[in-house]
Amino acid sequence: MKPLSAPGAALPEGSPSRPWRPTPLLYGAAAVHVGAIGALLAYPQGLGWAVAGIGATHAAMCAAGLWPRSTWLGPNLLRLPPSAEGCVALTFDDGPNPDLTPQVLDLLDQHGACATFFCIGERAAAHPGLVREIVRRGHAVENHSMYHRLHFSMFGPARIQRDIAAAQQVLTQLTGQAPRFFRAPAGLRNPFLEPVLCRLGLQLAAWTRRGFDTLSGNNAAHVARRLAGGLAGRDILLLHDGNPGLDPAGHPHCTTVLPGLLAAIERAGLRCVTLRAVVPPG
């Protein structure tokens, strides 16, 4: 087996970069900063108002970063495009997990369902055969950062780029195709993320609904209701094959909930697809 290159080596060519377009929130924040500086030069006694204005913009950007489904900091895929009206996307985070991912793959096979796996680069490098098996069975592997640091949203732009690019390199080498989508650890981010994703040709992807299946002690039926209640075409559903929560009996939520969820999708006449199969590049 060809050894993986060390993180930081040249990236294989992936999706083309795209232009970064600041959102109205970022334009507004920049305007407030410039206005505050100008006001202070003309009226130094207004320091308190200037600080308050700048503080308010930073609070707004922080709130946007703490809301995983926010589009205030840049584009964020929350649902499949209208062309995929009869489809849903099952997505799995935090793997690959040698104890759980094979079970998930078998369950998906039983229902003829495709899924998208947002893999952590470090774990993928530790289990290369499992990553290749995901792709061999017809699923997609996407980028979930190299190390899944919970303080990812506090990284500066250079560290964000190093982390995502390292995972992009590992996953591309293992699967033979560059990931097109990125999901931030815990969905948390900051204004530096979108420019980096643009340079790397990645699209940010969140979800329509999640089951909070990483919380141990949850009732599996409650997790299932959060995912299947109101199920509709174009939904993006989030489960975890890594870091799974356990039900009171000690069973991973992912494996206990998935069969019923797949059955509910079939009853609704919906088809499971990967993100890359239905979402246009860029």
From TrEMBL:
Domain of life of the source: Bacteria
The EC number(s) this enzyme carries: 3.5.1.-
Keywords: Hydrolase, Plasmid
Species the sequence originates in: Cupriavidus taiwanensis
Pfam family, one: Polysacc_deac_1
SUPFAM superfamilies registered for this protein in UniProt: Glycoside hydrolase/deacetylase
Listed name of the protein: Chitooligosaccharide deacetylase NodB
GO-annotated biological processes: carbohydrate metabolic process
CDD domains: CE4_NodB_like_3
Residue intervals of the NodB homology domain: 86-273
GO molecular function: hydrolase activity, acting on carbon-nitrogen (but not peptide) bonds
